[in-house]
Specification:
216 residues, eight-stranded antiparallel barrel, 2 domains, 1 helix
């Protein structure tokens, strides 16, 4: 009789353990429902390259230009700043875009009787980049245009010329809409004949600048 009672007690204890174990997920679920009111929605994992560079953008930049005037000893240099507008298309990590900018500059230099300055310039360029999520490395190149002004003995002469530009840079996505960039451009404004110098002069310069873009 004692063995029978002991067996029933053991079976009862085993049933209790199994019941508590099987019931614990339901208890946890009930606790989760009580704490949050409802389960959090299921979230699909985002792809590795989740940051999007596609779409139109506007920006501003500030940098420093330094260069030289062909057939003249002057070497105009100074700060440059302006506005940028562009559009990107993205295929996987590859980013293709078109960008234009207009810049005001303080680049100038005086040597003996000659003074040359570059009051403004602009570019229209293509861009090709490779993105690692929110970091993009890119190359760029295209058309450049701008003014070269010469002065001597109270006389002044200005020529607006077209040329070419090429460069490279890195852009960092700070938020989905806002990015910052560091960029280097080499700009060649073609030669033209200046009456005051009696020769052909043109301006070649490098430009290192930083900027921010807002993507719509």
């Amino acid at each position: 009789m004692k063995k029978l009672v002991s067996g029933r007690v053991a079976l009862a204890g085993l049933g209790c353990v199994l019941g508590c174990t099987l019931g614990s997920p339901q208890s946890a679920q009930a606790a989760d429902m009580n704490n949050y009111g409802a389960r959090a929605p299921y979230t699909v994992n985002q792809p590795l390259n989740a940051y999007s560079w596609a779409g139109p953008y506007l920006g501003a930049n500030l940098g420093y230009a330094w260069g030289s005037v062909h057939n003249n000893p002057t070497e105009p240099s100074g700060f440059a700043g302006g506005l940028t507008a562009g559009y990107n298309w993205q295929t996987g990590p590859w980013v293709f875009g078109a960008e234009g900018d207009i810049q005001a500059t303080g680049a100038s230099d005086t040597f003996a009787p000659w003074k040359f300055s570059n009051p403004w310039f602009g570019t229209v360029r293509g861009r090709v980049g490779y993105a690692f999520n929110n970091i993009m490395f890119f190359g760029t190149g295209g058309l450049a245009f701008g003014e070269l002004r010469g002065e001597t003995f109270g006389l002044s002469e200005s020529h607006t010329r077209a040329g070419w530009t090429v460069g490279a840079g890195t852009e960092f996505g700070l938020t989905q809409n806002l990015s910052a960039k560091i960029e280097y451009l080499y700009v060649d404004l073609a030669n033209s004949n200046f009456t005051i110098t009696g020769t052909s002069n043109g301006y070649r310069f490098g430009l290192l600048r930083a900027g921010v873009n807002y993507r719509f």
